[in-house]
C-alpha cells in the first residue's frame, strides 16, 4: 500500500496487493500479533459500569486513592509502552517506514465513522497509516452546519483528493439508541436531534417494523444512508466529482457479532442526480 | 482499472481480518458485541498517518475516538463536545488524551497568510490565534518544519486549556480523578511523547507501577493481581 500511496496513480490497486494484504492478515505474525498488552494490576471490574446514566458503585468509594493513582498511572503507561513496541516493529519491517510517512500523506479514503472504541477504521479494514483520512464523531453524522465535519470533507476532497468517501455506521450504536430514547440528554440533544430527524424521514418504514431490535438496526442503516446523502450535498464533493469523476461515496455498516463490514450498496449516482435538483452547488 | 478495486481491497481485507480475529479468539466478536468500556478518549488529527489504535498498539474496544482537522478543540463545537460528553459522562473513560503531530497540514496552513478557502479558514481560526499569541517565539524559529512542529505543540497546549475548562471534564477530575494529557506524535519516528500539560503531572514518578506484558483480555478482573502487587 505504501508504494502505491507514494506513487502517482492512487487509483491503481492491483489484485496482487489485495492478496498480499489478505495473506498479511491471515498469517499470524508471531512477533507482533497481538501486540503485547499490559495486564493491569488493578481493576476495571470495580470501575463504574458503562451504561447510559450509570452511577458510581459502592466499590468505587471503597477503593483507596492510592489504588486509583496507581491504576491510572498504569493505564497511562501502557499506552506509551505499546507505542514504543509498535514503532520499533514498523522500523524492523521497513527501516524507511517513518521517513516515508513523514514525507506526506496521500490517502485514498476519507472515513467518516463513529467514535465507538470498537471500530478502529484502519484495523478492521487492514489499511495502513497513510491510507485513510479519518473523522469520527458520535453516530457518524454529517451535519451541514457542523464546521468540524465540513472542514474534514473539504480538506479531504479538495486538498487531498481522496477517491472514496466511506460513511461507516455500526449495529448496536449507542448514539442511535440514545436518539430512540425519549429523554432529555442535555448537551447531547442538539447532536442526537439529527438522528431523530432521520427517523422522521423514514417514519413510515420504521414504524412498520414490529421488532424493536430490527427497527433499531434498520435505523442504523438508514442513518448511514442519510449521512451519505449529506456528503453528496456538499459543494466540495459535487464540484470534484463533476471535474474528476471522484470521489465516490460508500455506506457501510460494521457488525460486532462477526466483525464483518456490510456494504449497503448506496447508489451514489442516483443520489447525486436526485439531490442536485435542489442542492446543486456545481455553479 | 476502476476505482472499485481500492474499494474492494478494504472490504476483502476486512473479511480476512474478521476471519483471523475470530480464529485467534472465538470470543473476540461476541465480547465486542456485548458493549464497550474504553479507558481512553483520544482526540487527534484526521491525518491518515495518525491511526490512534494502531500507533498505540491497542485493540478494538480500547480507545474512544474523535479526529478532526488539526485536533482543534473549539469550545462551542457541538461535534467535539458531544463526543466528550458521551465519553466522559457516560462511558466514564479514565484518560482524555489530546494528541498533536508533526508535519500537520492544518498547522502549516495556520502559519501561512494565504486563505485556504471554504469553511477551513473559520475552522482553523483557533490555530491562527495560537500563532498570533506566540508570534515572537514562532517567528524566531528559522526551520519551517520545526516551526510547524512547534505551533502544533502550542495548539495542543491551547486545546488542553479548553478541555480543562469543560464543565463535564472538570467534574470528572474532581469526582473520580479523570486525567487529561497533552501528547505529541512525531511521524518521523513513530513515537508519542508527553507535553507535560493537563492534570497530574506534578507528582509523576511517585507511584509509578509498571505493568507486565500479558495477554489480550477483555473485561478482565484483576482483583488477585492487586493483592499480589500490594
Automatic annotation (TrEMBL), chain A:
Q: What class of enzyme is it?
A: lyase
| Annotated InterPro entries | Carbonic_anhydrase (IPR001765), Carbonic_anhydrase_CS (IPR015892), Carbonic_anhydrase_sf (IPR036874)
What is the catalytic activity of this protein? hydrogencarbonate + H(+) = CO2 + H2O
Pfam families in alphabetical order: Pro_CA
Q: Which family does it belong to?
A: Belongs to the beta-class carbonic anhydrase family.
- Entries under PROSITE patterns matching the protein: PROK_CO2_ANHYDRASE_1, PROK_CO2_ANHYDRASE_2
- Record's keyword terms, sorted: Lyase, Zinc
Report the transmembrane regions from the record: none
Name the chain's protein: Carbonic anhydrase
| Keyword Lyase (UniProt) | yes
Q: What is its EC number?
A: 4.2.1.1
What does the function comment of this entry state?
Answer: Reversible hydration of carbon dioxide.
Q: Does the keyword Glycoprotein apply?
A: no
Which SUPFAM superfamilies does this entry report, sorted A to Z? Answer: beta-carbonic anhydrase, cab (SSF53056)
Automatic annotation (TrEMBL), chain B:
Gene3D superfamilies linked to this entry: Carbonic anhydrase
**E.C. code:** 4.2.1.1
User: Required cofactors, per record?
Assistant: Zn(2+)
Q: What residues form the membrane-spanning segments?
A: none
Which keywords does this chain's UniProt record carry? Lyase, Metal-binding, Zinc
Q: Please write the reaction equations for the catalytic activity of this protein.
A: hydrogencarbonate + H(+) = CO2 + H2O
What the entry lists under InterPro entries is as follows: Carbonic_anhydrase, Carbonic_anhydrase_CS, Carbonic_anhydrase_sf
- Does the keyword Zinc belong to this entry? yes
- What does the UniProt record say this protein does? Reversible hydration of carbon dioxide.
**Family the entry assigns:** Belongs to the beta-class carbonic anhydrase family.
Question: Per its record, how is this protein called by name?
Answer: Carbonic anhydrase
Q: Which organism is it from?
A: Neurospora intermedia
